[in-house]
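Predict structure. Chain length: 478.
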Amino acid sequence: MSLRNITFAFLGLYSLLALLHAWSLPFSADEAHYALYGSFLDWSYFDHPPMVGWLQSIALFFSSSEFSLRVLPIILSALSLYILFNLAKKDFGEKVGFLTLLLFISAPILQILPFGMIPETPLILAGLLNIWILKRIQTNQGQQVKDWILLGLILGAAGLSKYTGVTLALSTFIVLYLQFKGRLFTQLGLYIAGIIAAICILPVLYWNMQNDWISFLYQLNHSAGKSEYSLVAALRMQVTQFAAFGPLIYVVGLMAIWKLRASKEAKVWLIFALPILILFSILSAKGRSLPHWTELGVIFMLPLIAKVIISSVESKLLKRSFMALASISLLLTLVVQVLITYPKIAFDDYRHPLADLMGWKDVSSRILAQAEEGDKVFIPNWSHASRVAWYARPMPVKVLDSRFDQFDLWFGSAEVGDSGIVLLHADRKGFKDELLKQFVRCEIRDELEVKIESSYVNYFKLYRCDHYIGASNKEAVN
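Prediction complete.
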C-alpha cells in the first residue's frame, strides 16, 4: 500500500474517532471556560485574548451542546492540517507532506486537542497561514500590497488568539529581515502590515485599559513563575513532552534541529518553531508548563521531522531506530484512544486518567436541584468552577481562592454575608473541609460518588452554607 493510501486510511479513522469523542465526552475545564467566554461576550478576557470567545459565540447561536461547540475547532483543525500538508509538500515533496500528516495523527496528545476549542486552535491556523503568506511575499519580492495586508490580518488574528502569538511577530520579522536585509525598512508593506495588526488587537488593548491592564500584569507574573530556576522542573517538562507527543516526534525533532540547521528550505520552519520551544522550556524551569503549550512549535517541526525520517531510510540502523520509536508512539496513542473511547477501565482511587472529565455534569444538575432563589455556588478553584458555571448556568459561581480572576469579573468576589451552595471535590488528599470555616454555618445536603467498579474516580459533596465571613480581599495577580 502506498504512503498516500496509508495516510488517507489513518486520517479517515482518526477523523471518525475525533467525531465520536467530540460527541461523547463532556467538557474539560478549559473547554468549559472558553465556552463561558462565548456566553459572556466581551472585547477580551482576564487570561486570554477574545478569539476563542468570539468563535464559541458563533456556535452558541445554534446550540449549546458539547458537540456543537466542538464543530468549529474540528473545522479549524482540519484547515490547519490541509495547510500544513500543502506547505510541507511544496517545500519538501509529497512524501514528506503525507508523512507529516501521519506524524500529526500519531501524537498521543493530538488525539484530544484538535476537537476542543482552546486558544491554540485558532493560533495554529494563524501560524501556518503566517508561513504561507511569508512565502508569497518572498516569491513576489514584497511587491504585492495585498500580501502585506494579509500578513497584517494574520498577525492580528494570532494576537487575538493568544498572547504567545507575539512569537509569530518576532519570527516574521526575522524571516523578512533575512530576505530584504536593510531594504526591509523601506518596504511600505511592512508598515501597512504593522498598522493592520495593531488595529486588529485594539479590542485587547481597550479591554485592558478599562480593567487596569490586568491581563498583561497576570501574563507577566505568570511568565515570571518562581523566583528560582529548577532543573528538575525543566527535566519534568521534557519528559512530559516526550510522552505527550511521542518519542518519535521528540527524538527525531531534536535530530532535525541539528541536521537541518543550515538547510535553506528548513530555515523558515525553524525560525517559527524554535522561539516557541525555547520560550516554554525556559518557563518550565520556573514552574510554568503545560504539555499543550508547545503544540504550535511542535507542529512547525513536523515537516522537518518527516524530511529527516524519509532521508534516513537508507540507513538500516536509523530505520530500525525510527521503527522502534514509532512503535512506542503508536502504543501510547493506542492507550489514549482506548481510554477516551472506553473510559470504564478501573484504576486505583482518584487515579483514573479521565477523572477530570467525570461527574461534573451530574453534580451541576444536583446543584440546580438544591438551589434556592438568590443562591450562589462557592467552589475552591477556577478549574472546578468552569464546569459548574457552564453546566449549572445561569447560577453565579464564586471562587474561594485568593486570586482575582475571570470569575470575579463575571460574578463578583465572595462578599461577607453571601449564602448558597458550597461544592467540595475530593482528590487523593481528601476534601478541603477547612473552606467550610469561611461560613457561619454549613450542613451537608447531597453527595455524589463517581465510581468505576469499586474504585473512586470522583467524589463530590454539596453543602448549604450561610453567611460568608472569609477574607474578601483578592490579589489581582497571583
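Summary: The mean pLDDT is 92.
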